[in-house]
Design brief:
single chain; 725 residues; alpha/beta
Length: 725
């Protein structure tokens, strides 16, 4: 485990705020302004970078030149530390120059000459090197490369404790097994594998080095990551390097997926077929890149689609995919492709993924537990729940999933659920995780035993309110043109008010009510309606206003809006105009349900309220049915069940999630009548506070509402128990 004082000293001497970094950046800036070779190196790097990562650079506050200089600088830092390892151990690293073209091109290596702090790195002795590991290099990298750049590239470096747990979960015998991390980053998983294999190797340093380098492999598309991972690999081997003499570190630069030509950030191509060059491995490990589909350049999207036909990587199409039922990032498809390319017969996979893959529609590919025609069995999960082992890098919850290939899936699947035990969590090693976190042993099972790919929940999860959703769940209004369709009070003086409606955004709704509304122009009654002639004739000012913004409206990218007038919107139909809607926000996890109907606006009068893009809803023309459903959804048994089936991603209350709950037609029984009455009372209580802001309301205790909620909970518990008898 890295010494925190050593890390602090390194960041102080060569980190982003150091004189060394400042001097190097200034020299690179001067070189790019005056040296043609430097400009050619930068142009080649940029072309290759965009080919690999898409137009990430255009979305960053940092300039492309700054990103280039920071990565080159970190390459120099790693290069100096490899010098130190070679000097301290009398070692020659045969393949240390992976990023040479990046830092050497255009005199960029010379930009480090004479910088004292960098020279000091090359002189570190064994005791100083012993304080370094993957976490230290990750911390140093994060101290050089800005957070926004790291997140844009999907660089979520894994704490050593998490990688230890993942590797320890593998059943393979480390004395014989082979390991591959196909997106190795700075090498945390490689270090864990190196130490595991070394501990099982013969007690002879030369034999240990040979055994390790014959069995632990890494791949990464970034040459800077490869250089860093090779250094991490060497640091993990330092107890055995005295007898090594010469070492080739088996961490390869290239595209593990085989989707593109292996092109480094200098623009030089490496055409190796890594799948052909490496033997099938027993264990696939790592933290795959959490990069969203829309970040990929068009060329890579096309190649992903071609690969998808072979492995069925994107099972959702059309409407389902557009409503978020596709993968929200490419981590699972990445693992599936690598398993197909590299994993040997009966091999194992142990990877870090978002824990939401167990619940939401985007995780169905993972829950299929099949790569092409190869079945997978889920052998163990380390679930970090609400903990944040990645710190502020990742908002979504994380888990380690371990699977066995070529074995039929079976449930329940064992889970270790990690929780705080009052002390500060520690993730520096597997031992630190075990010592500083509490754990509970449980298991996962499918919600639907007949469909193993349905949402997985804990075996001890609340199931009382699960059942058949008899109500159709709808999506709120989607127009993808906030600046055009959002109406302020001044605009009401310019256009006819007939087509302007109260509109709910995520900030408006609370349990049993809503606080305020926005105004929205809705120029049609249903999606794709051909009403342009009627609109022009009956609402000329509204039509003129829309024509003024035609270019912006036609520039909208969503395919939902194709095949209609230029002002087309989605999420409109007969259901939109139902008398009553039970609404909830699908984003985040705020399971607050409310009945909405009309709102009294000072300029519009009383008009129907429309749920916005972030909302889902069920509709009815029967007020009592609406309140019956709302009471159920807000009741304790339904909230407990919802908590256990909902994912923790950004869209955790989607149609597929809420449809797991029993949403019956209104039975009209005495208990149903009472639930409807209590919901109406709760809405009245909330309405009595609508003079407050939503924030002020949230901060206030409302005893009357608590009393009504208790009655609703009792009634719902009785109804659920009766139904489940």
């Amino acid at each position: 485990m890295a010494d925190e004082r050593t890390i602090a000293r390194l960041r102080e001497r060569v980190g982003r705020d150091s004189d060394a970094h400042r001097t190097y950046r200034e020299r690179v800036t001067e070189a790019l302004a005056s040296d043609e070779a430097a400009r050619r190196a930068f142009a080649a790097w940029r072309r290759a970078f965009v080919a690999a990562h898409g137009d990430v650079l255009g979305d960053l506050d940092a300039s492309a030149e700054a990103v280039f200089a920071d990565r080159a600088y970190y390459g120099v830092v790693v290069d100096r530390l490899v010098d130190a390892v070679e000097g301290a151990y009398g070692l020659e690293v045969r393949n240390r120059d992976v990023d040479g073209p990046l830092v050497a091109g255009g005199g960029l290596r010379e930009a480090a000459d004479g910088i004292e702090a960098l020279a000091e790195l090359a002189a570190l002795d064994r005791s100083a090197l012993a304080d370094l590991d993957a976490d230290a290099l990750r911390d140093l990298y994060e101290g050089i490369v800005p957070r926004e750049v790291r997140l844009a590239l999907g660089e979520y470096h894994t704490p050593r404790g998490v990688s230890d747990l993942a590797v320890d979960a593998l059943a393979a015998d480390p004395a014989e097994a082979t390991y591959l991390d196909p997106g190795c980053g700075s090498g945390a998983f490689l270090a864990a594998c190196v130490e595991r294999v070394a501990a099982a190797a013969p007690d002879d340093s030369a034999a240990v080095v040979d055994r390790v380098t014959d069995s632990v492999f890494g791949i990464d598309l970034s040459p800077v990551a490869v250089a860093s991972a090779r250094l991490t690999y060497l640091l993990a081997l330092t107890p055995h390097l005295d007898a090594a003499g010469r070492v080739t570190v088996p961490v390869y630069h290239g595209d593990a997926l085989g989707l593109m030509d292996a092109t480094d950030e200098s623009g030089e191509e490496d055409g190796r077929d890594l799948a052909a060059a490496l033997p099938p491995v027993d264990c696939l490990v790592g933290n795959p890149p959490w990069i969203t589909w829309d970040r990929l350049p068009d060329r890579l999207q096309d190649r992903w689609r071609d690969r998808s036909e072979e492995l069925d990587l994107f099972p959702h199409e059309g409407a389902a995919a557009l409503l978020g039922h596709g993968n929200d990032d490419l981590a699972v498809p990445f693992v599936w492709v690598c398993a197909d390319r590299y994993l040997g017969e009966s091999g194992e996979v142990s990877v870090v993924l978002k824990r939401s893959v167990t619940k939401g529609p985007a995780g169905r590919l993972f829950r299929s537990l099949r790569v092409g025609d190869r079945p997978l069995a889920l052998s163990h999960v380390h679930d970090f729940g609400s903990l944040a082992p990645f710190g502020d890098q990742v908002a979504a919850g994380a888990a380690v999933f371990t699977l066995r290939a070529d074995e039929a899936a079976s449930f329940p699947a064992p889970v270790t659920a990690w929780e705080r035990d009052g002390s500060t969590p520690g993730y520096g090693s597997g031992a630190a995780v075990r010592a500083r976190l509490a754990r509970e042993e449980t298991a996962l099972v499918p919600v639907d035993p007949e469909d193993p790919a349905s949402a997985w929940i804990r075996r001890d999860a609340e199931r009382a309110a699960l059942g058949e959703a008899g109500q159709e769940i709808r999506h709120g209004l989607k127009d993808d043109a906030e600046d055009v369709f959002s109406v302020d009070r001044d605009l009401l003086d310019r256009i006819e008010p007939d087509l302007v409606y109260p509109y709910l955004k995520s900030r408006h709704v609370v349990r049993y009510g809503h606080f305020g509304h926005d105004l929205r122009l809705v120029p049609m009654r249903e999606a794709h309606e051909d009403n342009e002639a009627r609109l022009r004739e009956r609402y000329p000012e509204t039509y003129r206003y829309l024509r003024e913004h035609r270019d912006a409206l036609e520039a909208r990218s969503s395919s939902w809006l194709d095949n209609g007038p230029f002002y087309n919107v989605f999420g409109l139909g007969e259901y939109t105009w139902a008398d009553y809607r039970v609404v909830w926000c699908r984003l985040g996890y705020k399971p607050h349900f409310a009945v909405v109907s009309t709102a009294d606006d000072p300029d519009l009068g009383e008009k129907q309220v429309l749920p916005g893009d972030h909302y889902m809803f069920v509709t009815t023309d029967d007020e009592r049915e609406a309140h019956f459903l709302c009471a159920l959804l807000n009741s304790a048994p339904y909230q407990r069940s919802l908590r256990d089936v909902a994912g923790d991603g950004k869209a955790s209350l989607t149609k597929s999630t809420v449809s797991r709950l029993a949403l019956p037609d209104y039975p009209g029984t005495e208990r149903a009548e009472e639930l409807a009455e209590r919901s109406m009372t709760a809405h009245d209580v909330v309405a009595d506070h609508d003079h407050l802001s939503k924030r002020a309301y949230r901060d206030r205790e409302v005893p009357e509402l608590a009393a009504v909620q208790a009655q609703i909970d009792d009634l719902a518990e009785s109804l659920v128990a009766e139904r489940n008898e």
